[in-house]
Amino acid sequence: MTDSKGPLNVGIDLGTSHCAVSASNGQRQVIESYVGWPVDMVARKVLKKSVLVGTEAVESRTMVDLHRPLERGLLKEGSEKDLEAVKVLLRALLGLAGVKRRGKDKTHVRAVVGVPAEAMRVNKQQLRNALEGEVDALMIVSEPFAVAYGLDALLHSLVVDIGAGTTDFCVMRGRFPTEDDQRTLDNAGDSIDELLLKQLREKHADAQLSIFMARAWKEAHGFVGEAQQRVTVTAPMAGKPTKLDITDELRSACESIVEPITETMRDLLPRVEPEFQEKVRNNVILSGGTSQIAGLRAALQAGLKPVGGGKIKAVKNPVFEGSDGGLALAIDAPDSDWDKLG
Ligand SMILES: Nc1ncnc2c1ncn2[C@@H]1O[C@H](COP(=O)(O)OP(=O)(O)OP(=O)(O)O)[C@@H](O)[C@H]1O
Ligand SMILES: [Mg+2]
């Protein structure tokens, strides 16, 4: 893909919950989008590090000031610490991809970074600043576009990327998508976790529950439609492990995203040229971690019936589809399409 003297091309998927990198040297890595700084000298002594990234940061959450800087898909405005956290994440990803920027054998890096469609408008400049000095050439694209590019689904398709912070939609018309071709909703994995936690707290006032528990239960048992079996989990009540039946709350939390996503698809489709609408309806691509909820693909496909029906297929590898697409784009992009940094 690239010889040892050529630039290293990388595709980065900058997600709310996971960041993935695919590089032209064959490296593919994923980390959780968390950064943590030890809170005091005791924490520093225990952790023996000045900053922690990914799973290590989450697992040490009692000892660190924990940041998830891309919450809701955007770099939270005005927060220096979040901006710093994004830099730490990007540097960690590039490091995992084998990039060396210090010393004399400096890797020449061209990076395509996929971000939620909405973030393209608001925070492009912040992202550019965060990557200053870390890469030589940069291209910022929307996440669903990167997925479409990687799958070569560039014409008459609709990509629906259901992540953690946002669900991003992008209609592909055989060219770079415009703002009109894209939509972003806040209904995604995080909103399911929050709703599940809220409903469980209302039903079991004595149970000690956290957002991390809600997320883990959703990932293990999440479903929409009729339950195949009851879902029972264990949580402490006044310190005592107790069994809870969460079937109904889990179903309604997972189903909360179906209607908004269906409505948005139904809103985007009539904007496609009339003679191509059927093609697009039959070429809907579902990506993102939340697309793995059992029964979701079928429920969304059923939602297309009132507008003539359609076909929705799920991508094979929701973890790396975005970063692989970014890498494919980096390899193909002519010099003129890059934003030069450094
Ligand atoms: N097996 C599973 N079933 C249901 N949900 C899952 C499963 N595995 C992961 N998820 C959820 O998928 C989401 C993460 O997906 P993904 O990595 O695509 O998001 P992201 O790219 O970080 O977020 P965004 O695109 O919104 O910025 C999380 O909400 C996670 O809980
Ligand atoms: Mg994503």
Overview features:
single chain, 342 residues, alpha/beta, Nucleotidyltransferase, domain 5, five-stranded mixed sheet, 12 helices, flat, binds adenosine-5'-triphosphate, binds magnesium ion
Order of helices and strands: EEEEHEHEHEHEHEEEHHEEHHHEHEHE
Choose one word for the global shape.
Answer: flat
User: What hetero molecules are bound to the protein chains?
Assistant: adenosine-5'-triphosphate, magnesium ion
Instruction: Find the CATH topology of the largest domain.
Output: Nucleotidyltransferase, domain 5
Kindly provide the radius of gyration, computed on alpha-carbon positions and rounded to a whole number of angstroms.
21 Å
- What is the percent of helical residues? 25-40%
Provide the number of structural domains: 3
How is this structure best summarized?
The protein is an alpha/beta fold and 342 residues long. It contains twelve helices and 16 strands. It has helices at residues 41-47, 55-59, 80-96, 117-131, 143-150, 189-203, 211-221, 247-255, 258-268, 277-281, 296-302, 321-332, and strands spanning 8-14, 18-23, 28-32, 35-38, 52-53, 64-67, 109-115, 137-142, 155-162, 167-173, 182-185, 232-237, 240-245, 284-287, 312-314, 339-340.
